[in-house]
């Protein structure tokens, strides 16, 4: 980093960046061209500093009970650094305030009968020039440091949030979503980047206002009070607008969270959505959330437009009111008096009219973001066991549970108002995934406190294998979570001695090579590695991959089959060195029987023979070799009661999750028109934000009466007084996006022109002012009243047009954002599956979060700034040249240099911005991956490694950001230098011209006053033009997705499908070959098969043989290479995708549910009655589980349906198929994660409900398909055997007979 070797001159002029810009103009910049970060800029150092102060806040909370404050921790971390920048800012503003005084002395030289000599005039001009040069050096160093402060705050809070993510408990994870966490780290923290720039103006602005008022008082006397009155009014107005920004931002953040969460679900489950042809319901869902978000964006944009207009109107208003008052009080205007006052007001306009309201706006937005981040940091954590001493010897290892009981539920008592002054006692229970259950008082506390695991007592010693079996939802995975300490005990003890590793039921594979996934941070030992690969039956798979174990897998292992992912997951656990205890959550269900048998014997019973192994399984043939068998059975019965009309009064005592209960209760009652809510508050850490969220959810509530017992928390009431108006204004606000519903706004839009003539706006009022002052100076009679009346009219017209133009421009920018989001989302929905296989979810999500956020919020304001400032600059140049022709001598060369400099800068700046955008995505992808595999990361004690990787990825992004802010200063310094030269030349040329002929003092004053405005404005305008171009990369990135090549048409006009097609379900594969992508290697080769109507066909084969790929061809998820598929004699390639996919039902290998009601998960189109839905649930053995939910079918499910076990989720998918009643049913490993009894019941359901349908069943449990009409055996993408089961069993050395023999069934 060149800053390590800088000298003072090089640093203040940013000369050290010259070499980098030269390189950027010669070739495209790459990652290796970026500079290394300075030690003080590194993510680890920044997070450590903030973490120390945050921990002290938490310790104070533990000791005194006072609520911790992230804002206070930030203040302690950065206060002294910010104080130094405040001092530099003070010096800068003192210099700015001195310039108008020198200008006044200079203008006296040009007045009639002046006593100022030419030498004095040159001294004053030199003083103005010297101050501008000093400001050029000082301002950009200060700007760099304040922007760096904002960057440090952003990086530190992001790292702090990531560290918190690694410690989140399962209950806390259920209370938030991946989309919400990503949104916090992408959108919320952006506010901090600009906070440092303006924050010191909260102090400097008012200070400067007092100084300027004093200086004006000495010149204008009492008339100054009129100007001060205007300033106070503007400050009050803009402070009010700033507070409104904070409120709107809070509402917008929640809606953005909801949209990002929904988008995350859609992208994660895109394969399922396409198979079900559910694109339209999800498009409608996202559109609805986006519509609500856009209402807030529009409100925010209109406030920004008013703020923007006020910024420029205020100076005209100020001048008008001050000088009219001064004249009416008998004052006499002179050019030196007028233009020194105007220059002082311009100084004040910059600090108070621009930077002060921006400081209020950014501070209010940042406080909202800090509050949201603080709420996240206050979520529940697991206990850290990483630093406990290892066992002294292997014999000391063991797992021992004594009377262990664990609950996924928190329990509170409360009272429900049932009318006539009567209350009924209730139990409010919130589950691990925020499922609310309300029990009437007849249930005693013992039965209400429902246990997931109850009175578990066991001991597992070294060398023993414990098999855990039980029906779906009985708590098998919860038992493993208890050993991992993810599920804390409510009573009893759990003693785990030894190093634990874990292979989860849902395999977790991260982006990288297969070898990296297996090693998982361990050193590569070739001998050990090959042994592990062999016992996990991965060696043959590696031979089939082009690059073997170095083959790259996409996010979530999309290029691997389900069985391959399960074996990689197991290999990771087995390879781990020093492990004594292996927790294996059903790793054998995803592989075929032969491979499962080999894995069990060679790996679990062979390679791990002397270790403690706890195996969860549904395959009972394996338990005969277990040393111990534990059978878990569901121990809880829920009596649920839904209340449709109630007012809640909850007596809060000690529950840590009380807040989320309050939130759920409010959601439960969101249809109420009137709501009274009383809380006895004691220890809630984030109660305030929950109340705010509740208010947002209850927008239909006309009046909210929130009363608090402040006896336990005296400070709460004062906070409540602040939050109550805030909540009510949010609840009442409703802005229509549809302009046809807002006639007032529409009429304004129609009356204005998008681009008002800035020359008139700028010059005309000042010409009248000049004319007025000239006539007054010369003492000639003139109708001053008429002049002032015209001046007032011009200022009034200016004000009206500015407001109208600002609002309309913001409005149309927001409309563009709406259209871009809709087009991008539509393109994503129509993209082929290959696109989602090669693009990580984090990368796509970044387009919808950061890029869309920039288009919605940053681009409109930057674009307006750019247009206005450049029109101002152009006007000032014309004014200067018109008044003094000599100025053109300097304007031409400076203009040429400026044009060259901007082009020179833009070439490198574009690359810097591109690298900044590219280096941001990996940060969010890493965060998303971590959340998905959090249990595995913690089980392997890899938190430090993952945190280190996060710091590396954030440092890479910080390197690009460092170049962005220093590169901007490099340009800005040179532009301000141009301006200083231009202003100095204008001053000198004016003095020179006056020696040749008489020069009007008013004209010189007008020229110099506006020329000084160029200082800062010129570089800011150029920066904004570059920023517009940079922000347009977000538009470009969004529009890149427009060009995604869509899959085949979803609907074909004029389609002549027979009524009720397919009527029989006859399927013919004719010489079918299939590759995952165009010109890729074929996965299926020349498949020929004819499946008769209503035939039940079992499809078996080793993992990776092409079974799931065969199913993909039926749904045309990717187009096949050659051949054809006929269904009832019709080539499926001639059909629209919606017609084809809606005609086939599937129960997928990876069952996915969506956040939303149970009913919407089963029937998003609302095509079936409640009776049919209940019937479908009953047939798949899920009716009792759904009846236990608080609102039954209307109950909200958690993200990805995580409040159901994997087996239960597969049953929900089966219920969908039962409802759809299609003639073709595909079952892809649907019963892999259910117990034998449930599997048997499901098979009976399928045979009964689908006896008149064609059923294709992929299964590794051979008993599932042994009674099929025919069995298809796939091997390496080819049909090896296809016949009736008994015929295949009779074949000696046949693949199917070998598989049956290997399974032992």
From TrEMBL:
Predominant place of localization: membrane
Entry's transmembrane regions: 70-91, 121-145, 194-217, 223-242, 308-331, 422-443, 785-804, 858-879, 971-992
CDD domains: ABCC_MRP_domain1 (cd03250), ABCC_MRP_domain2 (cd03244)
Gene3D superfamilies assigned: ABC transporter type 1, transmembrane domain, P-loop containing nucleotide triphosphate hydrolases
One cellular component term from this protein's GO annotations in UniProt: basolateral plasma membrane
Domain ABC transporter: 430-659, 1067-1301
Membrane topology label: Multi-pass membrane protein
Catalytic activity, as annotated: leukotriene C4(in) + ATP + H2O = leukotriene C4(out) + ADP + phosphate + H(+); 17beta-estradiol 17-O-(beta-D-glucuronate)(in) + ATP + H2O = 17beta-estradiol 17-O-(beta-D-glucuronate)(out) + ADP + phosphate + H(+); an S-substituted glutathione(in) + ATP + H2O = an S-substituted glutathione(out) + ADP + phosphate + H(+); ATP + H2O + xenobioticSide 1 = ADP + phosphate + xenobioticSide 2
Location of this chain's protein in the cell: Membrane
UniProtKB keywords: ATP-binding, Membrane, Nucleotide-binding, Repeat, Transmembrane, Transmembrane helix, Transport
Family statement drawn from the similarity comment of this UniProt entry: Belongs to the ABC transporter superfamily. ABCC family. Conjugate transporter (TC 3.A.1.208) subfamily.
PANTHER family: ATP-BINDING CASSETTE SUB-FAMILY C, MULTIDRUG RESISTANCE-ASSOCIATED PROTEIN LETHAL(2)03659
The name this protein goes by in its record: ATP-binding cassette, sub-family C (CFTR/MRP), member 4
